[in-house]
């Protein structure tokens, strides 16, 4: 019984740790997308089109990872 | 910002919202008094409240008034969206009464929450200040988070609520980022003030571009545009069917109202940039929505993808811009709400006992069991595809016509191809209804009378607009005129 309790608690902590990374992933994907866009725009002189595009990709990537995390968590 | 002062004139300008809030509070309170088993009475009261609000709203026809230090605007644009939202809310409440009985849920707060979320949506349509806009958005969202998890016994309902809550929270954060950047750049929260503070040198500021994309992404989530749509099918499938209808037929429409207002009023200077952005979003949204819908066997998931694709069509209007494009988008919004709610009402009609009416197979043989019900579903399916003489055809005609007139011929061509693709999965349901035989266990329909009222109204509306679209079209055109 004690062991089962410990296991359950450990898995709860594991889940919480996984969920806490969600915010960081979200922010990081947006930042990386924006950085790539700005860099490409500077290089190719296409401002602001690639910034818009990659920034949008960044936000979308953030949402997709969040959603995948949620699905995994749901199981 | 001027000193905020409270006065009665402001309250009378916001009378529709005030009345509906009062009704919602009354419903919540009466829930404690009404004896168990007769809570559907509260549902009827809520419908009466919504209709009363609609009547009061019509007193504001053709007028433009501001209230609460210019943060709230009651203009024809807001009126148009509020009319759609209130009619949707009334239909959803009528559907819910029978559904809650069939699911064995005897709780009056369901109606209260639907009413409060409707108040939030109405405020969204009237908000002309970033702060009140955000508050309104959250008022709506928080109620829907609770509603999505209303069937506590069902695991997938709780899962849908959790998914929607977390995704909604993140999207709100993204919207807030966009708003903060706009405020940082202009020092104003009012939409008109933002527009006038954005001088030519500020328009090329990369931070403004980021703010624009943040807002597009955040609102894109609320209206379920691709690539921010992943949560929609899961949430629609898991949430109680009337709540899925609320998401598709009301909350997305309020999201569209706010999106149109922000982009057209606050940052019209960036139109060149955002019309390209929405061009891409529109293309992706309709194509992905239609193609993925083909593979669905659950009708709620299919309707989820179908609603995604319709949002893609509506965005064409925003890309086309000007009065022509925006009024076509608004016309389509109203038509979309009506036909989608009708389709959801049909799902509820088939939700009896163990059969949930959620699989496309559940519709097999409906034409033999009940020719009238099958004909009603056929009307919605034809309208969703865009075949005359239904409302969907009229909506698409004006929308694609606007795109062609403004030079977006390719977008219109792709939209027409998409409509053809959609015929395939809509007709899959029609085939099941008309070609299949009634299963041996029989096909039972929900006995709810209010659901039948909702269905008849939706069918009548879909056919009436299809045959005589003039009044609604003129209403949409008149509503856009004063927006700029």
Write a short abstract of this structure.
With 75 residues, chain A is mainly α. Chain A has helices spanning 2-44, 49-74. The relative contact order of chain A is 0.15.
CA-CA gap between termini of chain B:
21 Å
Multimeric state:
heterodimer
* Portion in helices of chain A: over 70%
Give a short account of the largest sheet of chain B. 2 strands, antiparallel
Shape annotation of chain B: globular
- Morphology of chain A: rod-shaped
Structural class category of chain B: mainly alpha
- SS-based class of chain A: mainly alpha
Rg over CA atoms of chain B: 21 Å
Unreliable stretches covering 5 or more consecutive residues of chain B: none
Series of H and E elements of chain B: HHHEEHHHHHHHHHHHHHHHHHH
Helix content of chain B: over 70%
Tally of individual helices of chain B:
21
Record field, number of beta strands of chain A:
0
What does this structure look like?
The complex is a heterodimer of chains A (75) and B (484). With 75 residues, chain A is an all-alpha fold. Chain A has helices spanning 2-44, 49-74. The relative contact order of chain A is 0.15. The model of chain A has no long low-confidence stretch (mean pLDDT 80). With 484 residues, chain B is mostly helical. Chain B contains 21 helices and two strands. The radius of gyration of chain B is 21 Å and the shape is globular. Chain B starts with 7 loop residues before the first helix and ends with a helix.
């Amino acid at each position: 019984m004690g062991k089962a309790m410990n296991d359950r608690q450990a898995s709860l902590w594991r889940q919480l740790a996984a969920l806490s990374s969600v915010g960081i992933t979200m922010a990081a994907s947006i930042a990386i997308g924006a950085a790539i866009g700005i860099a490409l725009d500077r290089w190719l002189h296409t401002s602001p089109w690639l910034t818009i595009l990659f920034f949008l990709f960044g936000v979308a990537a953030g949402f997709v990872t969040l959603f995948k995390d949620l699905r995994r968590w749901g199981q | 910002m001027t000193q905020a002062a409270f006065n009665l004139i402001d309250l009378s300008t916001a009378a529709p919202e005030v009345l509906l809030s009062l009704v919602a509070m009354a419903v919540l309170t009466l829930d404690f008094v009404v004896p168990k088993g007769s809570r559907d009475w509260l549902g009827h009261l809520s419908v009466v409240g919504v209709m009363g609000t609609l009547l009061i709203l019509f007193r504001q026809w053709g007028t433009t008034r501001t209230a609460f230090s210019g943060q709230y605007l009651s203009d024809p644009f807001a009126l148009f969206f509020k009319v759609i939202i209130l009619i949707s809310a009334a239909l959803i409440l009528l559907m819910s009464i029978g559904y809650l009985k069939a699911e064995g849920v005897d709780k009056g707060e369901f109606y209260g929450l639907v009413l409060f979320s409707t108040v939030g949506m109405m405020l969204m349509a009237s908000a002309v200040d970033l702060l009140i806009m955000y508050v309104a958005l959250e008022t709506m969202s928080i109620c829907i988070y609770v509603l999505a998890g209303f069937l506590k016994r069902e695991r997938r309902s709780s899962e849908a609520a959790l998914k929607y809550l977390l995704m909604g929270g993140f999207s709100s954060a993204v919207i807030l980022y966009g708003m903060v950047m706009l405020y940082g750049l202009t020092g104003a929260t009012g939409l008109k003030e933002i527009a006038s503070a954005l001088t030519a040198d500020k328009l090329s500021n990369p931070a403004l571009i980021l703010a624009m994309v943040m807002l597009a992404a955040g609102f894109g989530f609320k209206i379920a545009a691709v690539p921010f749509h992943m949560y929609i099918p899961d949430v629609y499938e898991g949430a109680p069917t009337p709540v899925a209808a609320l998401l598709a037929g009301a909350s997305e429409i309020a999201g569209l109202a706010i999106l149109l207002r922000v982009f057209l009023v606050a940052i019209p200077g960036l139109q060149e940039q955002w019309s390209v952005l929405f061009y891409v979003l529109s293309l992706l949204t309709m194509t992905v929505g239609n193609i993925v819908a083909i593979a669905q066997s659950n009708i709620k998931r299919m309707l989820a993808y179908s609603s995604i694709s319709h949002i893609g069509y509506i965005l064409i209007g925003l890309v086309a811009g000007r009065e022509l494009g925006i009024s076509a988008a608004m016309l389509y919004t109203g038509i979309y709400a009506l036909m989608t709610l009708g389709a959801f009402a049909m799902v509820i009609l088939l939700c009896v006992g163990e059969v949930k009416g959620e699989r496309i197979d559940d519709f097999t043989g409906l034409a033999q069991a009940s020719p009238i019900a099958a004909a009603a579903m056929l009307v919605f399916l034809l309208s969703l595809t865009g075949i005359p003489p239904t409302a969907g055809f009229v909506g698409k005609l004006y929308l694609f016509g606007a795109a062609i007139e403004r030079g977006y011929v390719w977008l219109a061509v792709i939209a027409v191809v998409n409509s053809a693709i959609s015929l395939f999965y809509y007709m899959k349901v029609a085939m099941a209804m008309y070609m299949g035989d009634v299963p041996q266990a029989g096909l039972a329909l929900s006995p709810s009378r209010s659901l039948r009222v909702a269905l008849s109204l939706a069918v009548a509306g879909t056919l009436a607009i299809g045959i005589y679209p003039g009044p609604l079209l003129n209403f949409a055109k008149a509503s856009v005129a004063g927006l700029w």
